C-alpha cells in the first residue's frame, strides 16, 4: 500500500500560461504542477541550454583548478582517485581523459569494493606514493577521508577533493574541498553527482562550457542518471545534452555497450535500466577497471571484449539479486518479527556485498520500510541501505555510527562497514532511533493529477515527451483515473501479466498490470478502483496508440481510507515488536462477533491470497450485510484476528508485506479467543495504560 499524493494546482495560472506563451493546455498544466511557471524557467526547461552557472561560485573551485593547472604545467604526476560505482567510474573517465588530452602525467586508481571498500585508504596512499604521485584528485569520494588525507600530506602528496556526499562537521585538510554540500556553501545549485561535479571542474579548468559539454556530457549523463540525483536545472541540461551526444557518440566502447544492451532509443530510461547497470556490474562483481577501460578505449576489439564482460556480469548480478530477494522473503516469512521493525535490517554470510544495495531498494519497494542489508564476512562486513521519502537514512545511521567502521551516503541511500560482532548492537541502536519517532513516513506515490479518461488523446504523448529526460526530481508523469469500474481481468503473457479492462462513463480503457498473476491480483471484477498509470506511445502495424501501464491500484478513495489503514498497520507492527502506543484503545480488542465475521468471510471466499486493503474493505462490507450495526473492524484488529486464528490452530497464515496467504483449518471444537496469547498481551497493555474499560462481549 502507498499513500497517494495528488497536489492541488492553480487552474487559473494554467490558463494564464497558455495565453502568455501559446503552449498547449496539457503542457501548461504539467508545468504548473511541477512548479515551473516563470518565463526563464519554462524556456530553460523546454529548450536545451548549456549550463550557465559559474563554476567558480562553488567553494574552493578556484583553488582546485589552480592546483591541477599547476600540476599539469609542472609535469607533476596526478592520480584521479575514483569510486567503483557507475558515478565514480564515469567521473574518473571524464577527468582522466581530459587530463590526458592536455598531456598531463596522469593515472587513475579505483579501490576494490570487497578488499578496500569505499573511498581513500592508507594502503592505496602508500601505493600511489611509491608510484611517485604528487597530486591526488578524488572524484565521487574524499569528503570523509580525514585521516587518509592527513597521511597523504605527511608523504608530501597534495589532495584536491571533489565529492558530492554529505560531509561531517570537520572537513579534510586538503588543498581544496569542492563539495556543494559543505555547510558554508552558497552556490545556486548543489545537487550534482560526482560526474556532474567533475564536469563543472572541467568548465573551470577550460573556461569554455560549450566545449566541455560537447565533449564530455555523454559520459556525465550516464553518471548523473545512475546516481539518482535530481534531474533539474544543470543536471537536466547535462543529461539532455548527454543523451543527444550518446545517440551519436564516437566512443567505440559506449557504442559497443549500447549495442550489446539492445538499446533501441537512447533516453534516461535506457541509461537507467540498460547502460548504468552494466557499468555498475563491473564494480559489484568484477573489476571497475573493465568498465573504465571500456569508456576510455579507442580499440574496437578491446571495446567488444569488455562490453561482453560487462554483459555477462550484469546477467550474473540479476541472478544474485533474485536469489538474495528470495532469501529475504523466506527469512521474513520464517521470522516475521524481523519485518515488524520500522527499519528492516538483515544480514547473511551468503550475500554478495556488491549487490545488496540494489536488493535493499527492492525490499523498500516491497515492504514499504527503510532497509539495510549487510553481507557478513569473518571480520569487516559491508552493508547498504535505501530509504523512503521523509526518513533520512544517512542521519539515522550517523546517529548510530558508534558501532560502524565506515559510513557515508545520502538521505535516501547509505553504505557502511561494520565488524561482524557489532551487527546486533547496531540493529538495537537503529531500532531505538526509529522507535523514538512519533510516526514513520508512509511509503508514497506522487501523482501528477487525475485525468478524465474521456479526454485522453494521442497528442498528450508528444507533450509528455517534451518533459524528458525523466528521473529523480522530474519523474515520468503519473496520472490517476479514479472511480473506474473493473470490468474484466484477462491473463496474458503465459499468465504472468494481466490486461485489466476498465470503464468510467463512456470511456473504455485496457490497462496492463505487469508481473502479476490472476491469483495474486487482489481485486475482483465489478469493483470500483482508482488506478495510477503511466502513458506510453506504442506503434502497432504502423499505427501509433497509447499504452496504459498500471503503477498502483487501490480501492476507490470514495470507499476507503488508505492513510488510516496504513497507520494502523504501522501501529500493529509496533505492538508485535513489543512497543505499545498509548493511543491504542480497548476497541482494538476483538469481540467474538468480529472474530466470527472474519472467519465466516474467509470460509465463504474462494481465495487463498489477499491484500490487506481488500480484506479490510471486504470484511467490513460482509459484516454490515449480516449485522448492520457492527462497527468497521479496521486493519489493526483484522491483523490481530488473523494472527490469533493462526495461534489457535484455526488457519495456516503467512503475511508478507501487504500480501496475506490464508488457508482455514477445520474447526473441530469451539475456541475461546480470550485464551490467545496475543489477546492477553494486548489486554494487559491496555489495562497497564489505564484503559480499564474493555468492550463487553469478550468470551
Give the SSE layout.
Elements: E1 3-5, H1 11-21, H2 25-33, H3 39-46, H4 61-74, E2 77-81, H5 86-101, E3 105-109, H6 122-130, E4 135-139, H7 146-154, E5 158-162, E6 176-178, H8 194-206, H9 209-226, H10 233-246, H11 252-260, H12 268-285, H13 288-296, H14 300-334, E7 344-348, H15 356-367, E8 371-375, E9 380-386, H16 393-399, E10 404-409, E11 413-419, H17 423-435, E12 444-446, E13 449-450, H18 459-465, E14 479-492, E15 497-504, E16 507-513, E17 528-540, E18 543-555, H19 562-576, H20 592-604, E19 609-611, H21 612-626, H22 634-647, E20 651-656, E21 659-664, H23 677-688
Please provide a brief summary of the model.
Helix content is about 45%, strand content about 20%. The chain has about 700 residues and is an alpha/beta fold.
Q: Your description of this structure?
A:
With 699 residues, the chain is of the alpha/beta class. Helix content is 43%, strand content 19%. The chain is built from 23 helices and 21 strands. The protein has a five-stranded parallel sheet with strand order 3-2-4-5-6, sandwiched between helices. A five-stranded mixed sheet has the order 7-8-9-11-10. It has a five-stranded mixed β-barrel with strand order 14-15-16-18-17. The longest helix has 35 residues, at 300-334.
Amino acid at each position: 500500500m502507498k499513500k497517494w499524493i495528488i497536489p492541488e494546482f492553480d487552474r487559473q495560472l494554467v490558463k494564464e500560461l497558455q495565453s502568455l506563451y501559446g503552449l498547449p493546455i496539457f503542457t501548461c498544466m504539467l508545468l504548473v504542477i511541477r512548479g515551473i511557471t516563470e518565463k526563464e524557467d519554462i524556456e530553460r526547461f523546454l529548450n536545451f541550454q548549456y549550463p550557465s552557472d559559474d563554476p567558480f561560485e562553488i567553494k574552493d573551485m578556484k583553488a582546485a583548478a589552480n592546483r591541477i593547472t599547476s600540476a599539469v604545467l609542472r609535469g607533476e604526476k596526478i592520480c584521479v582517485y575514483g569510486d567503483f560505482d557507475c558515478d565514480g567510474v564515469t567521473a574518473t573517465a571524464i577527468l582522466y581523459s581530459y587530463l590526458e588530452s592536455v598531456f598531463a602525467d596522469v593515472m587513475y586508481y579505483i579501490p576494490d569494493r570487497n578488499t578496500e571498500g569505499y573511498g581513500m585508504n592508507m594502503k592505496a596512499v602508500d601505493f600511489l606514493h611509491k608510484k611517485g604521485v604528487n597530486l591526488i584528485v578524488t572524484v565521487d569520494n574524499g569528503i570523509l577521508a580525514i585521516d587518509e588525507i592527513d597521511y597523504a600530506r605527511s608523504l608530501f602528496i597534495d589532495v584536491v577533493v571533489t565529492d558530492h556526499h554529505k560531509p561531517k562537521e570537520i572537513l579534510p585538510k586538503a588543498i581544496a574541498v569542492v563539495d556543494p554540500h559543505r555547510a558554508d556553501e552558497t552556490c545556486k545549485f548543489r545537487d550534482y553527482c560526482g560526474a556532474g561535479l567533475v564536469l563543472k571542474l572541467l568548465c573551470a579548468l577550460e573556461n569554455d562550457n560549450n566545449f566541455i559539454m560537447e565533449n564530455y556530457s555523454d559520459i556525465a549523463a550516464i553518471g548523473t542518471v545512475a546516481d539518482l540525483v535530481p534531474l533539474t536545472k544543470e543536471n537536466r541540461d547535462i543529461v539532455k545534452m548527454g543523451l543527444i551526444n550518446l545517440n551519436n557518440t564516437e566512443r567505440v566502447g559506449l557504442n559497443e555497450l549500447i549495442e550489446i544492451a539492445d538499446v533501441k532509443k537512447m533516453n534516461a530510461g535506457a541509461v537507467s535500466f540498460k547502460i548504468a547497470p552494466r557499468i555498475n556490474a563491473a564494480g559489484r562483481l568484477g573489476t571497475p577497471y573493465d568498465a573504465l577501460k571500456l569508456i576510455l578505449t579507442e580499440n574496437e576489439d578491446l571495446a567488444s571484449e569488455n562490453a561482453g564482460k560487462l554483459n555477462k556480469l550484469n546477467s550474473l548480478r540479476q541472478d544474485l539479486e533474485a536469489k538474495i530477494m528470495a532469501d529475504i522473503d523466506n527469512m521474513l516469512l520464517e521470522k516475521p518479527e524481523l519485518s515488524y521493525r520500522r527499519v528492516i535490517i538483515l544480514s547473511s554470510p551468503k550475500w554478495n556485498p556488491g549487490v545488496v544495495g540494489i536488493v535493499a531498494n527492492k525490499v523498500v519497494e516491497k515492504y514499504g520500510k527503510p532497509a539495510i542489508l549487510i553481507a557478513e564476512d569473518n571480520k569487516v562486513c559491508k552493508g547498504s541501505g535505501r530509504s523512503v521519502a521523509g526518513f533520512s537514512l544517512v542521519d539515522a545511521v550517523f546517529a548510530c555510527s558508534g558501532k560502524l567502521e565506515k559510513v557515508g551516503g545520502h538521505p535516501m541511500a547509505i553504505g557502511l562497514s561494520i565488524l561482524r560482532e557489532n551487527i546486533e548492537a547496531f540493529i538495537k541502536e537503529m531500532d531505538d532511533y526509529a522507535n523514538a519517532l512519533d510516526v514513520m513516513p508512509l511509503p508514497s506515490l506522487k501523482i501528477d493529477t487525475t485525468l478524465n479518461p474521456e479526454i485522453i488523446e494521442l497528442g498528450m504523448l508528444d507533450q509528455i515527451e517534451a518533459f524528458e529526460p525523466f528521473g529523480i526530481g522530474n519523474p515520468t508523469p503519473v496520472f490517476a483515473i479514479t472511480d473506474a469500474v473493473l470490468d474484466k481481468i484477462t491473463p496474458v503473457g503465459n499468465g504472468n501479466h494481466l490486461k485489466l479492462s476498465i470503464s468510467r462513463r463512456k470511456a473504455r480503457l485496457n490497462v496492463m498490470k505487469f508481473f502479476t498473476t490472476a491469483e495474486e491480483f487482489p481485486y475482483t471484477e465489478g469493483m470500483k478502483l482508482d488506478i495510477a498509470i503511466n502513458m506510453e506511445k506504442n506503434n502497432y502495424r504502423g499505427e501509433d496508440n497509447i499504452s496504459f501501464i498500471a503503477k498502483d491500484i487501490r480501492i476507490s478513495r470514495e470507499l476507503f481510507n488508505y492513510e488510516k489503514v496504513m497507520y494502523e498497520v504501522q501501529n500493529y507492527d509496533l505492538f508485535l515488536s513489543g512497543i505499545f502506543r498509548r493511543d491504542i484503545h480497548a476497541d482494538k480488542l476483538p469481540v467474538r462477533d468480529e472474530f466470527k465475521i472474519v472467519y465466516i468471510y474467509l470460509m465463504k471466499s474462494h481465495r487463498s491470497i489477499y491484500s490487506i486493503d481488500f480484506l479490510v474493505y471486504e470484511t467490513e462490507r460482509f459484516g454490515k450485510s449480516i449485522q448492520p450495526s457492527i462497527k468497521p473492524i479496521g486493519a489493526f484488529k483484522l491483523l490481530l484476528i488473523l494472527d490469533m486464528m493462526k495461534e489457535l490452530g484455526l488457519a495456516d497464515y503467512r503475511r508478507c508485506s501487504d500480501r496475506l496467504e490464508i488457508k482455514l483449518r477445520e474447526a473441530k471444537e469451539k475456541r475461546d479467543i480470550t485464551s490467545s496469547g496475543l489477546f492477553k498481551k494486548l489486554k494487559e497493555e491496555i489495562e497497564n495504560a489505564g484503559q480499564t474499560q474493555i468492550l463487553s462481549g469478550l468470551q
